[in-house]
Amino acid sequence: MPFALVASNDSKCDCLVCFATMKTKQFAVVTAALLMAIGQMTLIPAFCADSGERKAVRRLAPFVKPELYDITLRPNLEKSTFSGTETVTIKVDKSVSSIWLHALELRIDSSYLTDAAGKSLSTTIKRNLKEEMVGFFSTRPLAPGVYKLHTTFSGTINDKLRGFYKASFKDTSGKTRTIASTQMEPADARRLIPCFDEPDMKARFKLTLKTLPKFSAVFNAPLVQQSVKNNERTIEFGVTPPMSSYLLALVVGELEATPEVIVQGVPIRVWSVKGMSHLGTYGRDEAARILPYLNSYFGIPYPWKKLDLIAVPDFAAGAMENPGAITFRETLLLLDPKTASTHAQKSATSVIAHEMAHLWFGDLVTMKWWDDLWLNEAFATWMATKTVDAVRPEWQMWKEYADARTAALDTDSLHSTRSIHSEVKSPEQTHEMFDVITYEKGASVLRMLERYVGELVFQKGVHSYLQSHAFGNATTGELWQAVGAASGSPVNEIMFKWVHQPGYPLIRVEQSDKPGTWKASQQRFFALPDGKPNNQIWDAPIGLRSVLKNADQNGQSQAECYELLRKPFGDILIPPDLLLPERDKGQEPVLANAGGLGYFRVRYSDPIFAALMQQPRLNFDPAERLSLIDDSSALMVVGLIPVTRHLELLSRYKDETDEAVWSSIIGDLHFFDRYVGKDERKAYQKFAQAQLANVFARLGWDGKENESTQLRQLRASVIGALGTIGQDQSVIAEARKRFAGYLKDRTSLDRDLLSPVSTIVAYNGQKSDYEEFRKLSKMAPTPEIRVRNLFVLDEFQSPELVAKTLDLALSKDVRLQDAPHLLGGLLSHRQMQNQAWNYIT
Asked: 421-452: string of b/e by CB count within 10 Å (b at 16+)?
């Protein structure tokens, strides 16, 4: 997809209740859910005009399919219109009297058919506005065979961030200019051309573009030739391999590109609006790193002829995997590696890897219908982490992946959650599925399966799946069949419940009377238990690992064996080499979720938990430590363990040095902060300071030469927490001092401290600070700097400045793509959420 910037779509009343009971990372999920719902109703014209009306359910006839679109387009950016001609080669397998395609907001001016012999057949045109379809009725029945449908049409270059739309930017002189770009997923190719706008209606596309001489254009296929005559540039592109209509891409305007690099025969460039191409070399070079790894992993050479990555000024999603022409939000592609934070670099590389993984998994092989969207997005999310970990091992990405898994668990514990695989009656419903369940839960389930069957076996199954369905379509079940054939395991049977039922299990393990075994049980976990019985069960792979020795600190510890719990109750056999004869029965220091890879929570009985806690911290890998903390926090919230036990666990991690683990701990500090009343606030601030004191004393403000990226990011997280919820006055004073120095000299402040320092200044700031950040955002030399200084406005606490930010979010000074994130930030804060909510409602 659209690489999702919005984490969830749960907008039911459950989420409003959960505002009072969830941790900070959960707040982000709920906030994004509300803002997506609100954005679709009131904020973003992309969705307000027709999302309530687009309920088409009639599918196109499976016996009438396109083979080739030959398109000529003439866009007029000044008038925001376009016109075109199209010849679609169509194969008809069954006698019909009409051919139906999709069309929306298009005027069809003329049409006729030709048969295989070239004989013309006149047609009459019938529109079905409700179904967004247009029918072409022949003067005589069409026997099975190949036909060509010729049409002329025209339409509008809209301002809805979907279909073929306008994106504006200011050039170096401050003048506003416009380009035109596409965003077709899930069903908006029909806004550009009459087409068979369903994912399993694959065809080849050929485009000729007629535009102004000053304009450049990027399409899925390479440029073949171009010429200028009579003040018009004609650009002819090659023919694409077969692909779905939602992957059609076209960007037109005053564009410029980086010099290309050729990697394994594939030319790679980054495109941007004029004046920004110097910020594209980072993305180009990261794509060049990624391509060889993906070629090797999939075992199928890159299936498209070139790779263009295009930064679009106005873009509703994060990025879109159009083959040969991937489109991105500017902040996720254009950056200056000399000034960009580690977080910005990781984000850009991860999104590039995500979209490039789609070029095989999603583009080469595409789901048959939108109910399998999860497979595309979950696979790309999982594969992006795997890829970035391979090409950037110093970032240790699997640890961050473990943190993302907890966000999925948080959302999936709500009554309003859904199953990964959901029924989709119309393409418009697909918008509801770009959420944390599709991406993070789906990816976590794939990661769990990969480890259960073995990495090489899983890779073999993926290769077989892609090879069998190349340039075609497939279903989830066909992937399970391929992995099952490679592994010899009943993968389809095991995975069915994980994909087709909502939620996940809480696994309870305790002592057993049988030597060398644990008693185990499973029950669906709810963040807000309602006391009603729930009989859901899963085939849960329990990964066992002894913690008697140091663990892999890169977050990739392996289970020593798996036990598959397939019933509500069962015994888990602990292998003899994991047993300790000298220990009391049932108190072996063995984890039931090795590597933190199982998509479930674990509740250990007190003796087993005590045995685990006797082991040194480094005998658990970071993902396991994070999992222990997160499970404990969730169990505490629902009252299954006392608060004291969770606080005792946190106290063990005062000397923690891993940024991913601290992310969970700091999340807990934010969670507790929401419950603290005015009278207890000072005491709580001292408590937070005490939790962070040891790690801050070790890290200090300034990094050391050749320091790891993990420590740099950990320092930023700790300082940010101390200066906000901790209200450490010395940290606040130092942040102000460093920010003042930054205003005089932009090179004086460490790039990874820019975000926490800005946050601290804003959190404790006044009107003059607010205006300073507004100015910094307007004058920003890179998209990252613009967004950082814009979004930090959410941190100001005064009601007057909150009101100013709320008004700003809906003004012309803020891009449509950024408004929901400004509002979401305000909704997630304890101090401002009521004011923000009242304003929005």
From this structure: bbebebbbbbbbbbbbbbbbbbbbbbbbbbbb
What residues pair up with 223 in beta bridges, in sequence order?
Answer: 237
Distance CA 248, CA 163 (A): 10
Q: From CA 631, how far away is CA 640, in angstroms rounded?
A: 11
pTM, full prediction: 0.92
Beta strand 223-229 with 232-239: parallel, antiparallel or unpaired?
antiparallel
What are the catalytic residues? 355
Question: Looking at residues 653-659, what average pLDDT do you find?
Answer: 87
**Cα angle: 391, vertex 379, 475; to 5 degrees:** 150
Q: How far apart are CA 39 and CA 642, in angstroms?
A: 40
Classify 660 in phi/psi space as left (phi over 0), alpha (psi -120 to 50) or beta: alpha
Query: DSSP letters of 296-360?
Result: HHHSS---SS-EEEEEESS-SSSEE--TTEEEEEGGGT---TTT--HHHHHHHHHHHHHHHHHTT
The side-by-side arrangement of strands in the sheet containing 163-170 is 163-170, 176-183, 250-253, 216-219
Look at residue 309 in the predicted model and tell me its pLDDT: 98
pLDDT of amino acid 16: 24
SS3 assignment, position 367:
strand
CA angle 816, 818, 823 (to 5 degrees): 105
Mean pLDDT of the chain: 90
Share of the chain residues as helix, strand and coil, in percent rounded to the nearest 5: 40, 25, 35
Question: What is the torsional sign of CA 276, 279, 285, 286?
Answer: negative
CA distance 232 to 251: 17
The number of residues in the chain equals 841
Query: Is the CB of residue 370 less than 8 Å from the CB of residue 422?
Result: no
Cα–Cα distance measured from residue 611 to residue 629, given in angstroms and rounded to the nearest whole number: 16
**Per-residue DSSP letters for 400-416?**
HHHHHHHHHHHHHTSTT
Going by the DSSP 8-state scheme, the letter that residue 39 receives in this structure is: I
| Tokens 């009391």 -> residue | 584
Q: Which of helix, strand or coil describes residue 823?
A: helix
Please give the backbone phi and psi of residue 99, each rounded to the nearest 5 degrees, phi first: -125, 125
Percentage, residues of the chain above pLDDT 90: 78
Q: Which two tokens stand for residue 32?
A: 């994004």
Choose among 157, 179, 162: nearest CA to 170: 179
pLDDT in tens, 281-295: 999 999 999 999 999
State the residue for tokens 């679009």.
Answer: 312
Helices (H), 107-160: none
